[in-house]
Amino acid sequence: MEERAMKMDSPLKKESPWQKPLTFINNWGTVIAIIALIVFFALAVPQFMTSSNIINIMRSISIVTIIAIGLTVSLTVNGFDLSIGSTATLANSLVVSFFVWYSLPTGVSIALALLLALGVALFNAFLIVKIKIPDLFATLATMFIIEGVAMTYTGGGSISVGMPRLDGTPTTGTIPAVFSLLSQTPYIIILMLIVVASVYFFLKHTKHGRYLYMIGGNIEASRLSGIPVNRYRTLAYIISALLAALGGVVLASQIGSAQINAGGGYLMPAVAAAFIGSSFAGQGKPNAIGTLVGATLIGVLENGLVMMSVPYYSLNIIKGAVLALALASTYYTRRKN
Amino acid sequence: MTTLDMQDISIEFPGVKALQHVDFSMKSGEIRALIGANGAGKSTLMKVLSGAYTHYTGQVFLDGQLLDIQSPRDAKKYGIDIVYQEVDTALIPYLDVAENIMLDEMVNEMSGKALVSWKNLHKKAGETLARLNVNIDTRKRVNQLSLAEKQLVLIARAIVHERKFLILDEPTAPLSNRETAELFRIVRELSVNQGLGIIFISHRLPELFEICETISIMKDGKMITTETVSDLTQKKVIELMLGKSFNEEHQKHQVPIGNTYLKIDNLTDEAQFLKNVSLEVREHDIVGIAGLVGAGKTELCKAIFGENPLQSGTIYLKDKQVRNQSPTHAVKNGFALVPEERRKEGVLVDEPVYANLTAASLRKFTLPFSVLKPERERERARKIIASLGIKTPSENQKVALLSGGNQQKVAVGKWLLTDAEILIFDEPTKGVDVGAKGDIFDLITSLAEEGKGIIYASSELNEILNITDRIYVMYDGKIVKELKTQNTNEEEILFYSTGGR
């Protein structure tokens, strides 16, 4: 009787001959795609494989990766944080305003910007965990609110050195040189790698990470195992907002000013990177290394296409198509299971 | 008057003969009760009649004419309809009462037409409600109605067209006494004044004796008998439902029952489903919670475990009051729950066996800064796998790939790594094969011998009789009787579970 039950549930069901290659492509498709793209671009554009261009790619994906890693954490608990782009914008505006308007020191400005971004996280967690609005809708609302907050705070969206405030008050602050260094190589790349490594360790090797994945897998069963589900969901949104804000701070260092909805453009690439990363190495769940690989794929694609003189305004077509492919691979396997 | 005649109905599902040569006949204008224990085949029989199952053998006649029922639509055409217990799945909450009542008509009888005449729709819906003699505004949205009103809307939908036979599947389960009385008035109205034949499926015996004229009793897929109510007593019905008296040997080891371990005093939950429940669990004690489906066993288990919020009542563990505000608190306080819905609530199917086993005790497997020690986890998991006899290729296997019984062992095993003192089991043998069932029984018995307090909730009476020391019988959210297992039997438990007193 039991033997029969075992046989019925055995994983060694009849497999179609396509099953194995399909699974392989699904698991390693991202890596295969990156290698294929690199080979293709290297042959098509001689300058592509130069070391300066490779560092260029690494630098260009840093901000997306930092923001996408935050999104990855929110995805572990099955929560989709759409407000990360606006949060990055807010942090960008805040940190620049602290320098230009208030002449605060670098450390204080960064810390303060991150701290205020925590407010966004708590607001998201309140809407999702307490009020029980579905995550997508709640963070969609937050996305608009925070975009508006950033615009209102800056008085229209942009601040730069020497620009007077909306009421005409002249400003005297400058962007410290040390802050600008943050977006220079190698520091920006090191920062990205630190973020990836620490979130990888947190998710993979700590109790907290295990709990986050369990909650994402089955919230009822997790609750009934005694896991403080709401606390961990809140934690996921906090990490997501903090990393989005960090991305916004690095962005501020890069552009040296606050711009209208500067972080908004990072939402879609971050989503794409996290979803491409989910299927990486057959993990089937959001993970930090996969997200880095996903961001790399997008970065290589973008860089190579620009070098091949594809106009920048057409790139979104390709980036969108890559996202669709990544989602197809995630949901196609999920449906089969 | 119309006669319904079902002859020699048999139906099989993989591995189960759900109905075997069942005959069932009645006349319009009659109110008939159809009862039987869980799995006796009453719902299956009615699904055959209403067109939900079509792979049966046998014949259905209406006034001597052979019917060909291939779908619910065919059944309706012949004047037979069913109202299921789960009202919310059959209603569309954001449409209004009239639209819901006329739903079948709008779906099935509007071919070729594109425009809806709202005036006619409301008029016809209003007339149907008037036939039931109830007063519900047809423009009210269904999600603003009470449960009882929703049920009336469903009954109204069933009788928009002329019906000869109407099946009501456990219609009173969610209703209050007053609402039940109202429903009975409507049932009588339909049968006496409008000549419908009503088939009434229910577990609540006192109700059946109040409303029905005849009772058909089923057991193990067979029709046992049909008799008029005046010839029967509740006791007699229970005997017929169970067949011959059932006296299985009591296998439980005799252990001395110790001091009071867990005491629950006047528990009422926020949803007011449980009403002033009090019970006691002593050391070495296995306490059974018996009762039919819907009596409140699961609600009680979840309320004790902090999953369902309490309105009033206190829980004492070894004379100290504990507050289980959430399952997290409950686990800290030494409680454990093996929930009824295993795949939804008991195990994490996408996680490996070892991660499931350590889910409730993960902090025992960490270094400073919550860093995990997966080797330790796997090692302890292997021990549990061996001691519970969990059949899995390794501790890294995904739980989704285990059989039901082995999944349940995982759900139980996770609490063995905690310091749980009170273990609550809610229908732990549901969907579990015989071998694993025995293992789980042995495990529960040995846990009690070690000194844990056990609460065992089940609607399987023979299991409760086999494993427990004492039994609390629940009915309608209340504990109606406490019994000593040694001195009782299935008949007595069923008598109290069906509302006898």
UniProtKB/TrEMBL annotation, chain A:
Chief subcellular location: membrane
Source domain of life: Bacteria
Membrane topology: Multi-pass membrane protein
GO MF term set: transmembrane transporter activity
Database matches in InterPro entries: ABC_transp_permease (IPR001851)
Pfam families: BPD_transp_2
Keyword Protease: no
Subcellular compartments: Cell membrane
Keyword line: Cell inner membrane, Cell membrane, Membrane, Transmembrane, Transmembrane helix, Transport
TM helices/strands, residue ranges: 21-45, 57-77, 84-104, 110-129, 136-155, 175-203, 235-256, 262-281, 288-306, 312-332
Keyword Magnesium: no
GO CC terms of this entry: plasma membrane
Protein name per Swiss-Prot or TrEMBL: Monosaccharide-transporting ATPase
CDD domains: TM_PBP1_transp_AraH_like (cd06579)
TrEMBL record, chain B:
Reactions catalysed: D-galactose(out) + ATP + H2O = D-galactose(in) + ADP + phosphate + H(+)
Localization: Cell membrane
InterPro entries linked: AAA+_ATPase, ABC_carbohydrate_import_ATPase, ABC_transporter-like_ATP-bd, ABC_transporter-like_CS, P-loop_NTPase
Signal peptide span: none
The keyword Nuclease appears for this protein: no
An annotated GO cellular component: plasma membrane
Gene Ontology terms for molecular function: ABC-type carbohydrate transporter activity; ATP binding; ATP hydrolysis activity
UniProt keywords, alphabetically: ATP-binding, Cell membrane, Membrane, Nucleotide-binding, Repeat, Sugar transport, Translocase, Transport
UniProt-listed SUPFAM superfamilies: P-loop containing nucleoside triphosphate hydrolases (SSF52540)
EC number(s) given by UniProt: 7.5.2.11
Domain ABC transporter: 4-245, 255-501
Main location: membrane
Membrane topology: Peripheral membrane protein
Family assignment from sequence similarity: Belongs to the ABC transporter superfamily.
Function: Part of an ABC transporter complex involved in carbohydrate import. Could be involved in ribose, galactose and/or methyl galactoside import. Responsible for energy coupling to the transport system.
Record protein name field: Ribose/galactose/methyl galactoside import ATP-binding protein
Source organism of the structure: Planococcus donghaensis MPA1U2
